[in-house]
Write a structure and sequence with these properties.
alpha/beta; Fumarate Reductase Iron-sulfur Protein, Chain B, domain 2; Rossmann fold; 3 domains; five-stranded mixed β-sheet; four-stranded parallel β-sheet; 22 helices; 11 strands; globular; disordered C terminus; binds iron/sulfur cluster
Length: 433
């Protein structure tokens, strides 16, 4: 348990002041000391010192966490709480193993270049057997309860055609000013190819050609967050191999969680690898840019992105939710706002607590659905009071979470990806609730 001892040394930097508790979304709902960041860090220390033993209860507590890193952000002692908790999950999995369901999904589907598309293609054909269309809605509900999916949940339909299947390897701009790689991400590939389409159109119109290797894999975040680093590493190596053939200096992604994984978590998960592997990982990770960062930093005039529309008397109002992986992991919050504020066809309105976690947390929303929705409901109350027409965000996970919550609460706000708001042309409909 030498790794656990290292983690314990890091956890011991926490002086248990409790400053971070006020902002922890889980503590805010449970009011249970053991779920606080300092509670979890204390348990890691006790485990390393042999005071307590590995148990299902301990595992449940360490997984009662959104990995949002709000605690790390608000810690005056700069304790890397998020990083410590994620590494502790890995130690738990190393010692207790994965559940059969997670083993099957992570080791044999998610990290397999062949199995994942095959599995989802079959799912796309058969989804009508398990799911029914919601009248006047843009999603599906389960026909019957399943142990791992709540029946109330809104489930977006799998796309008929997956983005990486129909998108050419090179979407060339005319004239071409720049050529960059495009990491699509599973949600955008299999559920919302329209986000990929909007990204391609937006960048092509601005002279940027996109290289989209079709043999790119899932980023691996779900496995990484669940402590299965070996499956996540397998995804990482497949992605690095898929892109390094093209020798690109910049690879963009329009999913904040993918961006955080490729840029920040890949170097973390290979920190003990050999020099050659570390170099490959670091070269790949340093090329990664979130789309909002790319648009504001790399294009000469971001405001030239948009078609100036006929000014209406009252513009539709749009607000923005900061994905945790974009704001806290990558430090990006100014760029999406700058882009939204420069639009001529929408009025940007700031939302209170815009960077508060939406409660998604990867598999957290599956394992703790009711708690996850309670956390989201605070944001939905704010949205309802603001009376905005649209909510934009830059993360596929947040999109899914808001679509579900907004549908269940019966709000009129439409949920869009940032690129869809930017790319919107006059007359196009944004009905993605
Ligand atoms: S990562 Fe988020 S949910 Fe987890 S302990 Fe920290 S603040 Fe709470
Ligand atoms: S993690 Fe930081 S803010 Fe939270 S209790 Fe420990 S020292 Fe205080």
């Amino acid at each position: 348990m030498s790794n656990l001892k290292d983690l314990s040394t890091k956890a011991a930097q926490c002086v248990k002041c409790g400053t971070c508790m006020a902002n922890c979304p889980i503590y805010g709902e449970t009011l249970s000391e053991v779920t606080t960041p300092r509670g979890k860090l204390s348990l890691i220390e006790s485990l390393a010192s042999g005071e307590i033993r590995l148990s299902k209860r301990l595992q449940d507590i360490l997984f009662s966490c959104l990995a949002c890193d709000t605690c790390g952000e608000s810690c005056p002692n700069n304790v890397k709480v998020g990083e410590i908790l994620l590494a502790a999950r890995k130690e738990l999995v190393n010692h207790r193993g994965l559940s059969p369901a997670k083993r099957l999904i992570f080791r044999h589907v998610l990290s397999s270049l062949r199995a994942m598309p095959l599995f989802l293609r079959a799912g796309s054909l058969l989804q009508g057997l398990f799911l029914k269309k919601i009248p006047q809605g843009s999603g599906l509900h389960l026909r019957f309860s399943l142990p791992f999916l709540n029946k109330k949940r809104l489930i977006p339909a799998l796309a008929k055609n997956f983005f990486c299947d129909y998108q050419p390897l090179l979407a060339q701009a005319q004239p071409e000013k720049k050529r960059v790689g495009f990491f699509v991400g599973c949600v955008n590939n299999y559920l919302f190819p329209r986000i990929g389409d909007a990204t391609v159109r937006l960048l092509n119109r601005n002279g940027v050609s996109l290289i989209t290797p079709s043999d790119q894999n899932c980023c691996g975040l779900m496995a990484f967050g669940a402590g299965d680093w070996s499956s996540a590493q397998k995804c990482a190596l497949a992605n690095i191999a898929a892109f390094e053939t093209y020798n690109l200096d910049t690879i963009i992604t329009s999913c904040a969680s993918c961006a955080a994984t490729l840029k920040t978590f890949y170097p973390q998960m290979f920190k003990d690898a050999d020099d050659k592997t570390q170099k490959r990982v670091n070269r790949f990770s340093s090329a990664i840019m979130d789309i909002s960062q790319f648009l504001t930093q790399e294009l000469d005039s971001p405001s030239a992105l948009y078609k100036t529309l006929h000014q209406q008397e009252k513009l539709p109002r749009i607000t923005y939710h900061d994905p945790c992986h974009l704001k806290r992991t990558l430090g990006i919050s100014r760029e999406p706002r700058e882009l939204l504020q420069s639009l001529s066809h929408l009025e940007f309105v700031e939302m209170a607590d815009a960077s508060k976690c939406c409660g998604m947390g990867g598999t957290f929303t599956i394992t703790h659905y009711d708690l996850s929705m309670n956390i989201l409901n605070h944001k939905l109350d704010t949205l309802e009071a603001m009376d905005v027409d649209m909510l934009a965000t830059g993360c596929s996970g947040c999109l899914l979470q808001f679509m579900d919550g907004i549908h269940q609460k019966g709000l009129k706000t439409k949920v869009v990806h940032l690129v869809e708001a930017l790319e919107r042309e006059e007359g196009s409909e944004l009905d993605h609730r």
